[in-house]
Design a protein that fits this description.
Distance between the termini: 80 Å
Structural class: alpha+beta
Number of strands: 17
Order of helices and strands: HHHEHEEEEHHHEEHEHEEEEEEEHHEHEH
Oligomer: single chain
């Protein structure tokens, strides 16, 4: 009778020592205790051995497609930074192709997918490639010939910008069927309180409530831009944690931000379903704000549609990760209208376009204007003028409002790439066909809502040092 299996036995069988030895020894000894042969025990131990690690792809192995041009020093510096991060990103296992949109700009450490980046993967979902702002998206409701100021006033009364949610005073809620889907999903079952509290809110940063008129008909329209708020952030963190566990075991050389879940695993399937739930939450969130605005203004609507630009899309056996990139093929989702919305800045039109499904762009088009440099750099370049003067000069003739009452200069048109240049590149690279435009009347953004907190904090720190 074979003696009990030990670590020395496994080494003698040719196995390399590792954490898995404990499980393998127990499995082998269980076989022996049941009267199995040494060969059967060895087979049981071998079944416990972890799969071989997956290496990085070779430099230059993954194609990087570009639909972008440069026209000045800032453009050139920005594009080189984008290329640098894309080259590092391209070494991630499972990647088939990458694409760069005209609005591309870096969004993190080297190897992080940039804004305006698209990554096509084989059977894998990479949470870091859709970012924390899951399903950031744009929605439009066409109202008809209505006073735009009345709509903007109504929107100012009902929408919510800034941090947090509505703290128990929420006039709207996600649908019951959607909440039931939250309950059944292991990534989301305890997220329901945040999904309720933050419903019908828009957050901060570049998110907006925009009112304008259709160039084709003169009808007034509402356009909103935001993502899945705190519920989406919670899902992202959980997805990243699950992907990180997988990365450490299967591909430790892969950058942490590019960790993945296999779609055909139980955890990967649950995460994919969680993404679809968050997508529906965000869609309902947009149109809840629109509906509250219409009710407050006492008007109806003629049409509405939406599209996301921070998400993962399945197309055949490929998973297309868009980070600040808009899917531009007609049937990308069951609720696709065939039209896409591309906002540029608060003083420029929102483009309504039909996607061209250009293979050189992996079927995507830009999500907006993008930036050539950071918010902080934008402020540094404008130290010779006041924020109030910048707002007046850049939004003349428009009804631009900041929800907290403090302007955010980093969201002014000058903080973004040229709107005209983005439109020209959309046409030049045949990324979409512009069929209409929503000319701006005015908009609402969060504003610099954190400034009072920062100023009070700095004051307390100064008092402590005195």
């Amino acid at each position: 009778m074979t003696e009990s299996i030990t670590g020395k036995t496994l080494i003698g069988w040719g196995f390399a020592p590792g954490k898995w030895f404990a499980e393998a020894i127990a499995a082998a000894n269980e076989v022996l205790a049941a009267g199995g042969s040494e060969e059967a025990a060895r087979h049981a131990a071998d079944n416990c051995r972890p799969a071989p690690t997956i290496p990085l792809q070779a430099i230059g192995e993954t194609p990087i497609l570009e639909s972008i041009e440069v026209s000045g020093p800032d453009d050139i510096a920005n594009l080189e930074a984008v290329r640098e991060t894309m080259r590092a990103l391209a070494r991630t296992p499972n990647l088939a192709k990458l694409a760069v949109m005209p609005d591309a700009c870096p969004a993190g450490s080297i190897g992080t997918i940039p804004v305006g980046g698209v990554a096509a993967t084989r059977g894998t979902i990479h949470p870091g490639m859709h970012s924390a702002d899951i399903c950031c998206s744009v929605a439009i409701t066409i109202v008809g010939r209505t006073d735009p100021r009345a709509l903007l006033d109504a929107g100012a009364k009902v929408t919510h910008f800034g941090g947090g949610g509505r703290n128990g005073g929420n006039p709207s809620a996600p649908s019951d069927p959607l909440l039931a889907r939250f309950e059944r999903n292991p990534f989301l079952s305890d997220v329901i309180p945040e999904a309720m509290n933050q419903f019908a809110t828009q957050g901060d940063g570049n998110h907006f409530f925009y009112v304008g008129t259709l160039r084709s008909t003169g009808e007034t329209a509402i356009v909103t831009h935001h993502g899945s708020r705190k519920p989406g952030e919670m899902l992202y963190k959980r997805g990243m944690a699950a992907a990180e566990r997988h990365r450490i075991e299967r591909s430790p050389e892969t950058l942490k931000q590019n960790a993945w879940l296999d779609f055909d695993s139980a955890e990967g399937g649950d995460y994919w379903e969680a993404l679809q739930i968050m997508r529906e939450w965000t869609k309902q969130n947009h149109f809840a704000i629109h509906d509250m605005t219409l009710e407050a203004a006492g008007v109806g609507s003629r049409d509405r549609f939406w599209n996301e630009h921070n998400f993962v899309f399945r197309r055949g056996d490929m998973f297309l990760h868009g980070k600040g990139a808009t899917p531009a093929w007609r049937d990308y989702a069951e609720d696709s209208s065939g039209a896409v919305l591309i906002p540029l800045n608060m003083a420029a039109p929102v483009l309504i376009a039909e996607g061209s499904d250009n293979p050189n762009a992996l079927g995507f088009c830009p999500h907006g204007a993008g930036r050539n440099y950071s918010r902080r750099e934008h402020m540094r370049r404008n130290t010779e003028t006041t924020i109030e003067a910048m707002v007046e000069a850049e939004t003349a003739g428009l009804d631009v409002r900041f929800h907290c009452g403090i302007p955010d200069a980093s969201e002014l048109p000058s903080a973004y790439k040229s709107a005209d240049a983005i439109i020209r590149q959309i046409e030049q690279f045949e990324l979409a066909r512009i069929v209409d435009q929503v000319d701006p009347y005015g908009s609402i953004m969060a504003g610099d809502w954190q400034r009072p907190f920062i100023e009070r904090r700095n004051q307390r720190l100064a008092e402590k040092t005195q």
